[in-house]
Amino acid sequence: MLRTYLLPFLVVAYLGIQCASANNKHDSDKTSIFHEFARFARREDTFRKSPLELFLRTDPQGEWFKKVLKDLKAENHWNSTMSGEMSLFSSALVEGTWYNISNNGTCNCCDVNNPMDPFNVHLSMTGRPGEVVVSWNTAQKPSPTEACVFVSNTSGSQLGSFCSSDIRTFSLGSGFSPYLCSNYSGYATHVKISSLKPGETYMYTIRGTSKNKTFQFMAPYGNTSSTTKLAFFTDIGTKGGQPVIDALKQRMSEFDYVILPGDQSYSDGYHTTFDAYMTLFEDVIASKPYMVSTGNHEGPWNFTYVRNNFYWPVNESGAAPDALWYSIDEGPVHFVFMNYENYFSYPLGEWEMTQPAPLSTFPGQLEWLENDLQKFAKRRESNPNLWLIMMAHRPLTCNISGKSCDVFGPELEKEVFPLMYQYKADMYWCGHVHAYERVNPINNVTRTQCSNCVQQNGSLYLKPPYPVQVMNGIAGRAVADNNYFTPGISYPDYAQVRIDAINYPFGGYALVQVNDAVLNFTLYNTSGTVLDSFRIEK
Ligand SMILES: *[C@@H]1O[C@H](CO)[C@@H](O)[C@H](O)[C@H]1NC(C)=O
Ligand SMILES: *[C@@H]1O[C@H](CO)[C@@H](O)[C@H](O)[C@H]1NC(C)=O
Ligand SMILES: *[C@@H]1O[C@H](CO)[C@@H](O)[C@H](O)[C@H]1NC(C)=O
Ligand SMILES: *[C@@H]1O[C@H](CO)[C@@H](O)[C@H](O)[C@H]1NC(C)=O
Ligand SMILES: *[C@@H]1O[C@H](CO)[C@@H](O)[C@H](O)[C@H]1NC(C)=O
Ligand SMILES: *[C@@H]1O[C@H](CO)[C@@H](O)[C@H](O)[C@H]1NC(C)=O
Ligand SMILES: *[C@@H]1O[C@H](CO)[C@@H](O)[C@H](O)[C@H]1NC(C)=O
Ligand SMILES: *[C@@H]1O[C@H](CO)[C@@H](O)[C@H](O)[C@H]1NC(C)=O
Ligand SMILES: *[C@@H]1O[C@H](CO)[C@@H](O)[C@H](O)[C@H]1NC(C)=O
Ligand SMILES: *[C@@H]1O[C@H](CO)[C@@H](O)[C@H](O)[C@H]1NC(C)=O
Ligand SMILES: *[C@@H]1O[C@H](CO)[C@@H](O)[C@H](O)[C@H]1NC(C)=O
Ligand SMILES: *[C@@H]1O[C@H](CO)[C@@H](O)[C@H](O)[C@H]1NC(C)=O
């Protein structure tokens, strides 16, 4: 439900017109405490020792780990067979602990003493012109008059308030897990702001108990613009992701929104780590819509935290209310977010990361996808300059030795390729493997590279007949990830660019600009160096 109090002129004005586990073959020279800890925690014999032995350190990080584990040990009988769970737990600790997470086993988001103070503020797009959704968390459930945002223009003139009854909460499992976050309490409110003028800048304010928060944003264009610019990356940690987040803060004028098909924060159900990540990112994503989808690290507890904290335009794109897939239009691009993460199967427990499964595993997804692509194809008939970018967390064609590329990619593509090729997708975006790989357009049956479409040393695709695939999984984790590509072996000619994982404090993100004729894609590392750059010309 949405109640709007927009001034009439504004309405008239407009209506008139989401992992590969690290496979460390070599230890990094730059050892630091979190690298060491992560390596240590992953060693097989680690789990046969008393957990306290792992933390015989004198530095503050070690002290903190020690305290957490001591508390846990006091409360629970340590079960040394739970190594998978321990591994996720340690990953969340490594990513989150630098932000001084204080936690005593219960988990309240936000500030219980100032129960209506807004936290984790972020925006989403619905794909509709002039419409945006504001989302935030509070410790207490907002009343109907508190679940509101106040919108003004940039001179501070009030335009009206928007309120919502879309207020969600959740519980996080029971029993042993999750160590850091049982008995969750907190609320996520989602308020839709409609009928703004696409491309105009506005301000919004959320009123809290001890503080109000105000951010500036641009009303999305939806399909009413022939250009668009965005940031794209996947696999971003909390501590590990901070360098990318800091780099984006310096380039706010260069993108209008952020696209992340899976794996953010590495909280794995440890909600305080997710909160730490969102706090770090808030200055960016409260101003720029943040469109996420599912990765294996969102999988624990059946995607609870993403389902509740993010507004996905499932209804707007014709999907079921609990669908983990949706599409949006922005500028000349139709973006399709798909899901392979198997939320039906948690054999060891709901704390687990998800495993991949074909699209058709999830009731309604394939039908939705065909329908969505058909509708898009009709629009493209009358406007051939539109672009189609399909994405999901995991790679299809890729050349890292390991299950993601050797086993799962070929399985997953059996359903995706026929549709991607039939509907002439321009690109496929993914991540999951913590490396970057750019795959030239290949024929889906013969797997031969398009003839003559790869030009200028691979920096230009001229009228490519097939999609360009980009795996961009290097946004950064605090744990070391490296040496994915095997030196000295030959890769197929279509594997145009390969970049190994970039270890903390560096990571990579792409800035993408599109108009009706050209798509520019540039990959940067956090020091601003261009790592890859190419364009597609229609
Ligand atoms: C330890 O965990 C395993 C796997 O979850 C379970 O099968 C086993 O019963 C547990 N052992 C104890 C002593 O709780
Ligand atoms: C972390 O918490 C401790 C104890 O509450 C405090 O002394 C310290 O200043 C905090 N550190 C940071 C970086 O906030
Ligand atoms: C845990 O800490 C919160 C505040 O952070 C407090 O409200 C709660 O009572 C504490 N719970 C326990 C069991 O100590
Ligand atoms: C969580 O809630 C359950 C039941 O509601 C209660 O038994 C348990 O003590 C609570 N745990 C914590 C850490 O507050
Ligand atoms: C904001 O609205 C006021 C009142 O309608 C108007 O005078 C002012 O020019 C507007 N400012 C901007 C930046 O549009
Ligand atoms: C928040 O804004 C409202 C409206 O301007 C104001 O009345 C209130 O005092 C503000 N609250 C705080 C904590 O500043
Ligand atoms: C935008 O999408 C709407 C709804 O699909 C359609 O009616 C309209 O013609 C489209 N506008 C443009 C400029 O493509
Ligand atoms: C879903 O979309 C339809 C049509 O676009 C609309 O009538 C309906 O109110 C929407 N439902 C929700 C829950 O937003
Ligand atoms: C996870 O959620 C989906 C969608 O609501 C549901 O169909 C599925 O059964 C759930 N999985 C488990 C293991 O409960
Ligand atoms: C690269 O991928 C192709 C096609 O799947 C495969 O035949 C080849 O063995 C792979 N090469 C490496 C080095 O992984
Ligand atoms: C290959 O692409 C064509 C469209 O170009 C499509 O009809 C066909 O189903 C695809 N086959 C496979 C095996 O992907
Ligand atoms: C793409 O990059 C080229 C070279 O920097 C630039 O001239 C062109 O305007 C860019 N196109 C778009 C759509 O941003």
TrEMBL record:
Coiled coil: none annotated. Residues 229-436 form the Calcineurin-like phosphoesterase domain. The keyword Hydrolase applies. It is an enzyme of class 3 (hydrolase). Keywords: Glycoprotein, Hydrolase, Signal. GO terms for molecular function: acid phosphatase activity; metal ion binding. Pfam families: Metallophos, Pur_ac_phosph_N. Residues 1-22 form the signal peptide. Residues 118-217 form the Purple acid phosphatase N-terminal domain. InterPro entries: Calcineurin-like_PHP, Metallo-depent_PP-like, MPP_PAP, PAPs_N, Purple_acid_Pase-like_N. Its EC number is 3.1.3.2. It catalyses: a phosphate monoester + H2O = an alcohol + phosphate. Belongs to the metallophosphoesterase superfamily. Purple acid phosphatase family. PANTHER family: ACID PHOSPHATASE TYPE 7, PURPLE ACID PHOSPHATASE. This is Purple acid phosphatase. It comes from Galdieria yellowstonensis. The lineage of its organism: Eukaryota, Rhodophyta, Bangiophyceae, Galdieriales, Galdieriaceae.
